[in-house]
Amino acid sequence: KAGVTQTPRYLIKTRGQQVTLSCSPISGHRSVSWYQQTPGQGLQFLFEYFSETQRNKGNFPGRFSGRQFSNSRSEMNVSTLELGDSALYLCASSPRTDLSSGANVLTFGAGSRLTVL
Amino acid sequence: GENVEQHPSTLSVQEGDSAVIKCTYSDSASNYFPWYKQELGKRPQLIIDIRSNVGEKKDQRIAVTLNKTAKHFSLHITETQPEDSAVYFCAAVKAAGNKLTFGGGTRVLVKP
To answer: Average pLDDT, whole number, for chain B?
Structure first.
């Protein structure tokens, strides 16, 4: 079974540009979440999608947005990039919502490392 | 919202010794507590988790304990090996949710 696949793995952008990152969850997983990882702020929740609907959103500005398609693949977009957006963006998937229920765990992809110059 | 604090931020142990990482959380509605291990340049990987209906869970050399009254949980690694060197993250999840609130991470170094 293929894992969570994220593309691109690395990218470099300049301030003011926008970027779109893609995530393909594990087959059969319908919940997709996004996290930002930086040395200073650690791992922070961006948003979660289930069945094409955003269920939860973290404390990030409106420049950060996402969506989920009918095949559960997800994309996140960051517009008007700032230097502080440089980070590893991690996607994670799970079969369904409610991690507190048995046998439902979150699996991470390898991440997309974004550098903003 | 939920807040998770993790201590220590760095931990250096001799190979064969035990390592303990502690986390506290603020929201009593949290009921799922996973631990992730992240090696340098790699993705976080789930190593063990505990749900609030149990107080302790073991998997070979690792164990997690949970004290819901005090709102803290701990990771215990026994007989540490060099391959245990990594950053470990604790997290808390509220009931019926998928959102992980992470602790700040603990960098563990196992010296041979």
So the answer is: 94
